[in-house]
Amino acid sequence: MKRRWAAMVLILGLVAAGCSPGSDDGITSSDGGLGDPGDCVVVDLAVSSEKISLMTDLAKSFNRSDEAKVGGDCIFARPQSKASGGAATLLGTEWDEDAEGPRPVVWSPASSAWGAVLNQRLADRGEKAMAPESEPFMQTPLVIAMPKPMADALGYPGKPVGFADILELSQSAEGWAAYGHPEWGPFRLGKTNPNFSTSGLSALIAQAYAATGKTTGLSKEDLDNPKTEAFAKGVESSVVHYGDITMTFLNNWFRTDREGTSLTYASAVAVEEKSLIDYNAGNPDGILDPGERPRKPRIPLVAVYPKEGTLFSDNPFIVLDAPWVSGQERQAAKKFEAYIKRPANQRKVLKFGFRPGNPDVAVAAPIVSANGVDPNEPQTLLDVPAPPVVLHLLDKWSEQRKSARVLVVLDVSGSMKELADPDSGETRLDLAKKAAIEALDQFKEDDEVGLRVFTTDLDQSGATFIDLVPIERIGGNKEQLRRQISEQFPRNATPLYDVTRESYEEVLEGYDPKRINAVVLLTDGVNDDGDSSDDEQQLESMLKVLREGSEGESAKPVRIFPIAFGAEADLDTLRTIAEATNAAAYNASDPKTITKVFTAVVSNF
Q: How many whole angstroms from its chain centre is CA 328?
């Protein structure tokens, strides 16, 4: 069991390193305007991505202050963004500074639970703990985000709402018609994969507590109770799709809000309160690019604090007990910690949408009702279960989650023969095949997976694709999938638009409402079918078909998750394709990241 927990965290770390919000590769290694540290004592910090802007702001002011001194030397605090699970893995294995940036003196994941994970992994190898207990310097609770009209329809906040209500809605044949809104269709829930996301794991824990009626002491026996299992399966049945990050849902919500279709995209998504505040401020990903101006959504979100209770992401400030951290660096880190916990700086924490960790600083704007949140909530807090219980919960979820029906569409055009890794001599297709084969192990036995390859002139009739493995339960066809993937070789051109439309229509024809229906499309190029004169017409016709299938009360959502593989891939068009089906595009412009990216894509199922 411990080995499996370590493996899960390793996969999580790989994905987090490859696909975090804020950058294409998940690593924010620029100085953020901090400048050159010179001869100062450098305190490198690895912080979760949602707070990189805040930590950079605090570091700038600290570095300029008279307090940035230790033993007569100046101190230079230097944050970089690292997803919590990714940092946990790197700290527990090997931190490659060339690839990942400098090893941190301070680690601030979203939740202190990650420190416990790291320490457990080290203990399993007979090594000492690296992450000592520490106090949070800010907090944000998990909430259920709902569009305001939907929260109003449920009577919230006058009527408490929780996971039991989500269960009732998910099992209702009437859906929103029971609340006078048939135009909203069925109840649709968005959740991140708990193996990859802190908010996803917190939501899973809260859901389990709701099923048992407890607020503490969740046990394996509780999780094995048939009533708990039935509750979990009922909630999961309403999931539109999973995901590696909440930004996928928030960005899609924001885009569909502009189009007037947000109420039929998702009814509720488990996110952190800070993310909901950002969304309502017109900044759904929490990061404003230079020149970007926030624009508030037409339909704001409301934070529903589950009546059964919720958890806080406590954002600890962990000064690592690691061999590379010197005594002087540790002292310097403590100086920065004292600085950010001062009341004046805790008020800065508030400006970024977090709740202060300093009890002397009261919760205030922007955590106010006008922004869709309630400073007096949550009223009930839940305890994080013991690590063995969390592991058992994840094991149960892997079988209880909503099943998927997925067509993997693999580009085998001639450009896939290009060298991708000079050190190993592997081509793009070599790396893509390896990534696809490894990703198959993330599907559960009941998932249905098929394989299609595409290029021009596959046979004498001029076929543009071949279905090598039909969409069937992977429990019976995994070896066939592996074999067929491994046998592929580069061939001709890239009929991207034609094959994307055909693949979408294939999955739509066999649509299963009890499953997540999707296409995973990997390509390294642009549309090239031998006739460029009709490219624009092909694209518009394809997008029209995709959008018509994704909208309206009777929509049959088939989501396309494209992977842009290599620097020549048409990432902008692939993003447009993903948006047309309310999915997400993934960037593997560096071919050597494809395994990480493919793992992230499969986290949606």
A: 36
Closest CA to 334 of 120, 1, 116, 62: 62
For residue 32, name the pLDDT band (cuts at 50, 70, 90): low
Indicate if the pLDDT at residue 510 is higher than 90: yes
Distance CA 137, CA 316 (A): 6
Distance CA 200, CA 93 (A): 24
Are the C-beta atoms of residues 210 and 144 closer than 8 Å to each other?
Answer: no
Buried b (16+ CB within 10 A) or exposed e, 90-116: bbbeebeeeebbebbbbbbbbbbbbbb
Residues 574, 587: Cα–Cα separation, whole Å: 10
Report the C-alpha gap between 487 and 469 in whole angstroms: 13
Assign 150 to helix, strand or coil: helix
Instruction: Mark whether 344 and 390 lie in a shared domain.
Output: no
**Residues 468/412, Cβ–Cβ less than 8 Å:** no
Beta strands in 48-157 (DSSP E): 69-70, 73-81, 106-108, 138-147
Number of other CB atoms surrounding residue 385 within 10 Å: 23
Parent domain of 479: 403-602
Residues 6+ positions from 153 with CB-CB distance below 8 Å:
176, 179, 180, 181
Specify whether 414 is located in the same domain as 391.
no
Instruction: Return the CATH number at 237.
Output: 3.40.190.10
Are the beta carbons of 407 and 400 closer than 8 angstroms?
no
- Amino acid identity of residue 284, one-letter, is P
Average model confidence (pLDDT) across the chain: 90
What pLDDT digit, counting tens, does each position of 417-430 carry?
Answer: 999 988 889 999 99
Domain count, the chain: 3
Judge contact between 234 and 155, C-beta under 8 A: no
Q: Do the beta carbons of residue 435 and residue 594 sit within 8 Å?
A: yes
- Single-letter code of the amino acid located at 9: V
Buried b (16+ CB within 10 A) or exposed e, 342-353: eeebbebbbebb
Please give the model's pTM, rounded to 2 decimal places.
0.86
